Amino acid sequence: MTVVEERKxxxxxxxxxxxxxxxxxxxxxxxxxxxxxxxxxxLQNEIGALKNQISELQRALNATxxxxxxxxxxxxxxx
Length: 79
Description:
The structure is a single chain. The chain is mainly alpha-helical. Helix content is 59%, strand content 0%. The longest helix is centred in the last third of the chain and has 47 residues, at 30-76. The model has no long low-confidence stretch (mean pLDDT 86).
């Protein structure tokens, strides 16, 4: 028995602006879209700041580990 994998193409995306009333759908107003855009931008800025903090903490941890390793080697030399 052979298994045939079905390849699915990704759905096509289209940039569409809908104005007016569409039955059965909640259509965001331009103000709503601007609010959402602002929220996304602030979240992206926050993510960037957190990435910077993580890299700074990683550098500090690496420096601390190097100092600890030097101290351990120094103390081992007295055995």
